[in-house]
Amino acid sequence: MTLKSKKIKSLLTNSSILSLPGFVSIFLSILSIPIHLKFAGVENYGDYLLFHILLSLSVILNFGISKSVVISSNFEKRNLTKISYDALKYSSYIIIGLIIFYFLFNLLISKAFIEYISLELLFAGLIISIIYITLEGILQANKLFKVISVINFVFYSISLSFPSILLIFFNELSLFHLIFLSVVIKIITILFLFLYFIKKKLVVKNNNHFFLKYLKRNSPWLTLNGSFIQLYEMMDKYLIKIFMGAFSVAIYSIPQQLTGKLSIISKAFSAFLLPNLNNKKKLDEFLYSLDIFIKYIPLLLFILFPLYPIILKFWLGNEYSLLILNLTKIFSLVAIYSSVSHILITKYEADQKSKKNFRIEFSLLPFFLTILCYLFINDSSLLFISLLILIKELSLVMLRLYFLSSKDIKIKKYLIYLLIFPLLLILSFINMDFFYILIIILSIVTVINVKQNI
Fold first, then answer.
1. Helix 212-244 to helix 322-350 angle, to the nearest 10 degrees?
2. What's the Cα-to-Cα distance from 93 to each of 99, 122, 130, 161, 237, rounded to whole Å?
3. If 0-12 CB within 10 Å is exposed, 13-18 middle and 19+ buried, where does residue 400 land?
4. Is residue 218 a contact partner of residue 354, using CB atoms and an 8 Å limit?
5. Percent of the chain with pLDDT strictly greater than 90
6. For the stretch 405-414, what's the b/e string if a residue is b when 16 or more beta carbons lie within 10 angstroms of its beta carbon?
7. Are 202 and 73 in contact (CB under 8 A)?
8. Residue 405 near residue 427 (C-beta atoms within 8 A)
């Protein structure tokens, strides 16, 4: 077996381990969403999802500590346990600040808002998530991929889906109780992780501050990048909630819940690449990952397009609609571009060039926000909003690829795939015969490409 083959085998093996629980989470989502809709209603589900969307703010509030740990592991392998201690110490400072902010915020907030959502649960969820993200980064730096896959499954998938499934047995569970159960599951996961860290001695107390120079260099840009990602990914949902209500949030989010599971795979690849990847090595794994998410996985998704109506009708029953079908098609392509971005961003982060990625995202922000606000002011449909998200994701992928272009990373071979996907999407709406023809041509080209790479 050649060195390249060994690298690719290692990539696929470890990424598969990280992805495996994610596939189980897909089954849980397929099971839990119809149950929640049936027993608690669409609006309740929209508010339940909104709470978990708000918890994603913890990615910003972690201030890049988690990824800085992983990046530093490329250069400070011997001091990793000491770096891990610093990471937890700085995370505790953030938590103290958040607790102080909670008490100040609680004094100023209106009673009406407190009745709508429990601030205690929200801030508890944010604190737990900040801790978890740091712990996950330490596990990633130690390349404990099997542990990450299991813990991620419990922390994200079980905590989201299990309360919904319980509605079968306890129909009277309120929104507060569902959220409370979700937060309890997250707390139990954190406690288990602390015990695991103590047993494996992954953290060693020290006063050497090995971690500080990596945090200073990477934290500002990682935090800004995280802020823009959250803004891009969450702004549409916040505005839909404000202008259209929780019912529309649910209709809009259900297709995202299904298609967004593709990110489980791309994030698994990223989790493997980041502690190994820098500008001098592991480029084969990076390029092969791009091939997988630009050439192979999208083709499989498009082949499934004709089955979407059957799958969605069976899954959602009476809640199925043509709008959900169309949104699912659009968000499938959004998920493809988003997954490619996960791989590209990993390269920027590994090379400690998050500043460049920030500039890319910042350049699109004014256009995105202006058009998004225009759509809401003019009462546009969810379909137009989803198309804007699609255009934004495609633009970000193209720009990220362009600025990574080099003699080792040639973008021309990816362009035909990235630009042909929107055409396939359009044909799936207007002419399935041409859609099938283009799929056949693309399949032949992809098979030939695979044979050339063997």
1. 170
2. 10, 19, 11, 31, 30
3. buried
4. yes
5. 24
6. eeeeeebeeb
7. no
8. no
- From the list 132, 161, 200, 213, the residue with the least C-alpha distance to 27 is 161
Dihedral angle sign, alpha carbons of residues 27, 32, 35, 37 = negative
Residue 259 confidence (pLDDT): 82
Rounded to the nearest angstrom, the gap between the alpha carbon of residue 368 and the centroid of all alpha carbons in its chain is 20
* CB-based contact 140:17 (threshold 8 Å): no
> What's the 3-state SS for the chain?
CCHHHHHHHHHHHHHHHHHHHHHHHHHHHHHHHHHHHHHCCHHHHHHHHHHHHHHCCHHHHCCCHHHHHHHHCCCCHHHHHHHHHHHHHHHHHHHHHHHHHHHHHHHHCCHHHHHHCCHHHHHHHHHHHHHHHHHHHHHHHCCCHHHHHHHHHHHHHHHHHHHHHHHHCCCCCCHHHHHHHHHHHHHHHHHHHHHHHHHHCCCCCCCCCCCHHHHHHHHHHHHHHHHHHHHHHHHHHHHHHHHHCHHHHHHHHHHHHHHCCHHHHHHHHHHHHCCCCECCECHHHHHHHHHHHHHHHHHHHHHHHHHHHHHHHHHHHHHCCHHHHHHHHHHHHHHHHHHHHHHHHHHHHHCCCHHHHHHHHHHHHHHHHHHHHHHHHCCCCHHHHHHHHHHHHHHHHHHHHHHHCCCCCCCHHHHHHHHHHHHHHHHHHHCHHHHHHHHHHHHHHHHHHHHHHC
Q: Phi and psi of 352, rounded to 5°?
A: 55, 45
Sign of CA dihedral 324, 340, 344, 17: positive
Q: Hey, what's the torsion of the CAs at 389, 394, 400, 404, to 10 degrees?
A: 170
Angle in degrees, CA 230, 234, 235, rounded to 5: 105
Cα distances (Å, whole numbers) of residue 195 to 72, 95, 135, 361: 24, 20, 12, 39
Distance CA 65, CA 384 (A): 37
| Confidence check: pLDDT of 114 > 80 | no
Asked if pLDDT for residue 107 goes beyond 90, the answer is no
Are 204 and 349 in contact by the 8 Å Cβ rule? The answer is: no
Segment 291-300 mean pLDDT:
88
The predicted pLDDT at position 112 comes to 46
CA distance 326 to 162: 28
User: pLDDT tens across 318-361, in order?
Assistant: 878 899 899 999 999 999 998 898 888 888 877 777 778 878 88
